[in-house]
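Possible race condition, two jobs.
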Amino acid sequence: MKGVMAPFPFLTLLLIGYLIGAIPFGLLLTRAAGTGDIRRSGSGNIGATNVYRTAGRKLGVLTLVLDMLKGALPLYLAWRHFPLNEAQAGLLALALFLGHCYPVYLRFKGGKGVATALGIFLVLSPLAVLEVLLLFVFIVWKSRYVSMGSISAACVMPLLIFMHLKSLPLFFAALLIGLIVIYRHRENIERIARGTETKLKL
């Protein structure tokens, strides 16, 4: 990430990134498969976990992959083809992530952003993603709560990004993403505290 992209083209790039991030793959896939509106099933979330639970493993995995790609691919291509500095890369990452969480196509009611954040971080630091995935798998294995694994990963990832990249702009971008992930899991946190959160069947 070298150089600085001019303000106007960069704002256009941010808008495009947001619109790509806003594509609701979970909803599109379940409708195409004839399983109805995923927002009216399970937790009502359009993300991979709810698709997995309500529409089956194949659609759940495909949703996960596509939600990751819409975070990873645009950021990777922008990194390769535009003169982005670290602050601009962090802003583009946020635009992609916010698109998933608050999609204009669904009246700003989207997913929790974990898969899209994972794709973003995979481009920024594959090593950090590997480390946080180990933590995620361990937490989910011990607790059977996917949400607890996601929250734990959101807490740790900003620190790993800073440790590996030594970049304050990317650290703050990762921190904002992590805080939003935790905020969007607030209902899961309440259910975990009450003991009513749905456990993953392995």
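Job #2 (started ~2 s after job #1):
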Amino acid sequence: MSLPTHYSGVTVHTKANVYFDGKVVSHTVILADGEKKTLGLIYAGSYHFGTGAPERMEVVAGECRVTLDGQTALATYKAGEHFDVPGKSGFSIEVPSGICEYICSYLA
């Protein structure tokens, strides 16, 4: 899978989404067709996120370990890989070192 390196003709929300005392930060991007994405980074550590809508998390750089709510399996994702999270659910994510950069797409 090839991840985009840029988006053209978008609206970017300049106010950052900041979580866990600044250890997870993203910006919201609205594509020309109205599709919403967030682009962000996660510093080393362990975090849990809940979802409203289904999401696809694409790893742009770095790596992370993920466990989806209700599951016990721990999966590792590296640059160029993705995982999907059901709506009204959640996931635990661990970045063992460095920074994990991601694109989050909200699926219909």
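The mean pLDDT is 96.
Logs attached separately.
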